[in-house]
Amino acid sequence: MLELINIHTFYGQIEALKGINIEIKYGEIVCLIGNNGAGKSTTLMTISGIMKPLSGDIMFEGKSIKGISPHSIVKMGISQVPEGRRIFPKLTVKENLEMGAYSVVSDQLSVFKKLTTKNRQQTTQNKELATQLEKVFELFPVLKERHKQLGGTLSGGEQQMLAIGRSLMSNPKLLLLDEPSLGLAPIIVSKIFKTINEINREGVTVLLVEQNARAALKLSHRGYVLENGRIALEGKGEELLNNEQVKKAYLGG
């Protein structure tokens, strides 16, 4: 589904990614683990088009997406849940979710622009939004209960659910998750990881960046270890869990 080929990405003069190669197959959960500053978030932002690689290529479903705008990448089927959630605090839960569907719905409406009336366009939009909202509400019932509540008044765990739900509103083929457990209580982390597994079972491929290496590797089919912008190790999740180097560096012995 996705292949990063010898990707070099810079922050100004600093080389954050130093020729990394990553492959993700359809239906997988793949994790990236590593210390702070290793290049994990940079990898996700490079895939989603927020950062532009200086060299190398990114192939998604056989087509290069290097240099394509972020909103176009969303339309192609890649959606990112950013680190720190970054919801819209002064919008309601429902409005936050609707924002996640904006590029997809607006793109669909443009196709019908010359062929349909304004009322028909509104009907098409409402139907698409309703379908996606129902999927998200089935996954996160608490968001349905709080759909009129302002995003900024939710708990940390609920905000993370909202951030994931917002990304799912574009009906992605590939979901990029950046530190979904950050700052959450263990019981909420467990719920979030169960939900990620459920999303994957429903057919969404997942690329997960996570500081909680043990939980990430248990959940993932395969994993990559990033160190100083380079891939240091790769393998099946279970293999990396039992790797002595990984145990010592990321699993507390």
Mind explaining what this structure looks like?
With 253 residues, the chain is an alpha/beta fold. The protein has a single domain, classed as Rossmann fold (3-Layer(aba) Sandwich), CATH 3.40.50.300. Helices cover 43% and strands 24% of the residues. It contains 11 helices and 10 strands. The strands form 2 sheets. Strands 6-7-8-3-9-10 form a 6-stranded mixed β-sheet, with helices on both faces. The protein is globular.
Summarize the structure.
The chain has 253 residues and is an alpha/beta fold. The chain is built from eleven helices and ten strands.
Radius of gyration: 19 Å
Q: Which CATH architecture? A: 3-Layer(aba) Sandwich
Give me the CATH superfamily.
P-loop containing nucleotide triphosphate hydrolases
- Mean pLDDT across residues: 90
Could you tell me how far the N terminus lies from the C terminus, measured between alpha carbons in angstroms?
Answer: 34 Å
* Broad structural category: alpha/beta
- The count of strands amounts to 10
| Residues in β-strands, percent | 15-25%
Shape: globular
What is the count of helical runs?
A: 11
CATH topology: Rossmann fold
Instruction: Tell me the count of domains.
Output: 1
- Identify the CATH class: Alpha Beta
Secondary-structure element order, N to C: EEEHEEHEHHHHHEHEHEEHH
Low-pLDDT segments, ≥5 res: 108-121
